[in-house]
Amino acid sequence: xxxLVSSTDTLTRDALAVLQPGFLGTTAPDWLLxxxxxxxxxxxxxxxxIASPEQLAALTERLRAERDDVLVAxxxxxxxxxxxxxxxxxxFPGNYALGTVDDVxxxxxxxxxxxxxxxxxxxxxxxxxxxxxxxNQDNPVIGVRSFGADTPLVARHTAAYVEGLQSAGVAACxxxxxxxxxxxxDSHHAMPRIDVDLDTVNARDLLPFRAAIAAGSKxxxxxxxxxxxxxxxxxxxxxxxxxxxxxxxxxxxxxxxITDGMEMQAIASAYGIERGSxxxxxxxxxxxxxxGGLADEETVLRLRDxxxxxxxxxxxxxxxxxxxxxxxxxxxxxxxxxxxxxEPGADSQEGTAPGTASALATxxxxxxxxxxxxxxxxxxxxxxxxxxYVAAFTPVANIAVxxxxxxxxxxxxxxxxxxTETGSYSGAGAAGEDPAALAGEVLAAAGDRTIVAVVRDAHxxxxxxxxxxxxxxxxxxxLVVEMGVNEAEPxxxxxxxxxxxxxxCGQAAAEVITGRRE
Length: 518
Known about the structure:
Oligomer: single chain
Number of strands: 14
Strand content: 5-15%
Largest sheet: 6 strands, parallel
Distance between the termini: 58 Å
Structural class: alpha/beta
């Protein structure tokens, strides 16, 4: 590949500064360290990069040895979307559980503790919270990542989350502007289109973002959605009307605007990541998130050179690129100052956090407290005293959540009732196409043990709902745990809605089922 310009000039440094790439492995590759020295300002971390708190702290320390103000970003929402605890499930319930409790002080405390753990490992930018109002209950990508379907509730909890996270010294990135809650398409796979009028957008979707801006959110993430009421031609990430006209000028947000992942098909399939990145910066975005799927040096160089070429050919004003780079560096400077204020000998102040990995291992229990408060129980049944059979009805996880993060109640029940067994059932294959046959498999595997049926968004999956009904018809004493959006009618001898599938949500449900706590 031919490099357009020297890697040391101002234009190239600005082009590198607006990129937020990922990488493979649990140590920083040489190419990444070199690019940090040449002007790259940000690095994105994913579950594949994290093995332990100590390893993560060592990784971020190595990055800062190359550039002391580097932005180390992560997609750590808590709840279903976790990178810190990708192998075991989160110690914090997600937004839907917090919105169900509707205690803004609790939300603020949970966000602060999550931020403290991130800061302890050297992470200083969190691509969270989700400020989307989940107005479409069939939404395949937001769901429990939202605080709920009520706009004022979402707004007040978004603000509390921003305040809590940033009080721990971690910059918030409120997402997905101007609101991804009314979609029936996952933007990881295709372009969602939201056909509502401007009054609805203003009254329903924008209010949480206004609240986040008022709370001081350091950054905002754009959505890959087409919203014709705002721009009939370009998705939000590529729309000057939306990013500059609405977010910058009308809502008054002055921090960096970060794109959602540019390799997501909503952008990549229609525009390509190079063209999409140029259009995004031209529209008013300041940072290009890439690396969830494309995580190599070639991608970074392709995007860098595409931005430089766009400036050289007049498609992208040089001052726009310079302004974007300056906003990213400004955020990086804030995080460096906050981190400096937390070091030994510095005066204590709000917006600081401990800087050692050992802080991550300290469990205050706030996540479990929140998960317990979020549980809603319908019906009555005697606590189980003998090991049950857990039937996990498992839908395909959306990409934001990932297939690798465990969910359910079997592990937690197994600690309280040794001998608990489990089976996983899906809508794929011949049995899944016949819910009665799927139910027959469950009944055969369970034998005479009590069945605990665990579902996730049963209202969205016909195969799941029908198979569950067939199990209940045969075994009315079955207990049901709903770990997604709780829209279906309560069913079972005991129906437990956890409002999320984090590990602590499973623990809270297991405590209800057994009447015991570890």
